[in-house]
Specification:
alpha/beta, D-Maltodextrin-Binding Protein, domain 2, 2 domains, globular, 13 helices, 6-stranded mixed beta sheet, 5-stranded mixed beta sheet, about 45% helix
């Protein structure tokens, strides 16, 4: 062997050894485009913005989320998840009320009578994941729960009969309110105050938390008991999710599950928030209309029956299976 050949062989061997000892290459940081189904900075958008902040704090060098805006400034909240599923956005923070047009079974998420930790064990969320995957969506986690919805009014009512009331609704409780006699119309969040102020509507549905404080000027009554769960969810475009490496998926999942655990309905954080919010409302002069006995039973039974009826009509096969998993 010539000296030149020996030197070349030695150099190659040294290079291979150095390569073997070098740490494995890490994937480049990925930036995901995120969007909120609510106006940026509003009480209902802030929980998702907190998710984005946490991912960006812990995901430096791994994964980041660039929040590009919120509905309605970037378009209708009812089309945001549709657009995300097609790739216009990578990740969205949204209530299932706004993506029922993508997934007919979406309302099941607000009817859950079991903790999400249990739904992850009993296969309920796995079932929803398969349905979402087929629509181009990966379900990451529930990132917030504002507690039960309530009916809010500008005038008192004596019982669960809603005849004569014109109410602002979202798909969450349209069937419920109309089953009790109300006439209804939809609007974006910015119109609720104006419609209440000028008498276009006499009430609306909304959770006690995530409730815009200025509405106290046009809202005089809250109806108890509440109904359903006002959940917010983090959804990811399925193709984008599949393109992420294990470390990126792991970080997003860890953050999502941490937020999910904190938002269980019986959590101290949620219950403390509800107590403080209702105390503030009372201090501001809001009165509570509390149904009891047969009236309360009629109110709550109508909410459950009408909610599941819609799901079973739209999705007979999946609806029945999901009811067995999500309802007690």
């Amino acid at each position: 062997m010539t000296r030149t050949a020996f030197t070349g062989t030695a150099t190659l061997a040294m290079a291979l050894a150095a390569f073997a000892l070098a740490p494995p290459a890490t994937a480049a940081e990925v930036t995901l485009n995120g969007a909120s189904c609510f106006p940026i900075g509003s009480p209902v958008s802030k929980p998702f913005e907190a998710v984005v902040d946490e991912v960006n704090k812990r995901g430096k060098g791994v994964v980041q989320i660039k929040l590009v805006g919120g509905a309605p400034a970037i378009g209708s909240p009812f089309t945001l998840t549709q657009k995300m599923a097609k790739g216009a956005y990578d990740v969205v923070g949204c209530t299932e009320a706004y993506f029922g047009n993508v997934l007919p079974e979406a309302p099941v998420l607000r009817f859950a009578e079991k903790p999400y930790a249990e739904l992850r064990r009993n296969g309920g969320l796995d079932y929803m994941q398969k349905l979402m995957n087929a629509k181009g969506i990966h379900f990451l986690a529930r990132h917030h729960d504002f507690g039960p919805f309530h009916l809010w009014l500008s005038q008192p009512i004596a019982g669960p009969d809603l005849n004569g009331l014109h109410l602002r609704v979202s798909p969450v409780y349209t069937a419920f309110f109309t089953s009790l006699g109300a006439t209804v119309q939809t609007s974006n969040i910015a119109q609720v105050y104006t419609y209440m102020e000028n008498g276009t509507v006499q009430g609306y549905g909304w959770p006690a938390l995530g409730w815009p404080p200025p509405w106290i000027k046009v809202t005089k009554y809250r109806v108890e008991p509440g109904f359903y769960n006002s959940t917010l969810h983090t959804l990811v475009n399925k193709k984008k999710w599949d393109s992420l490496d294990a470390a990126q998926q792991k970080l997003l999942s860890e953050v999502g599950l941490e937020f999910e655990a904190r938002s269980e309905p019986n959590s101290d954080e949620l219950q403390s928030g509800l107590k403080k919010q209702k105390a503030w409302m009372a201090d501001e002069g809001m009165q509570t209309i509390t149904f009891e006995g047969a009236a309360a039973d009629k109110w709550s039974a109508a909410a459950v029956a009408e909610g599941w009826r819609e799901v079973l009509e739209r999705s007979p096969e999946h609806g029945a299976k999901l009811q067995a998993l999500f309802a007690k």
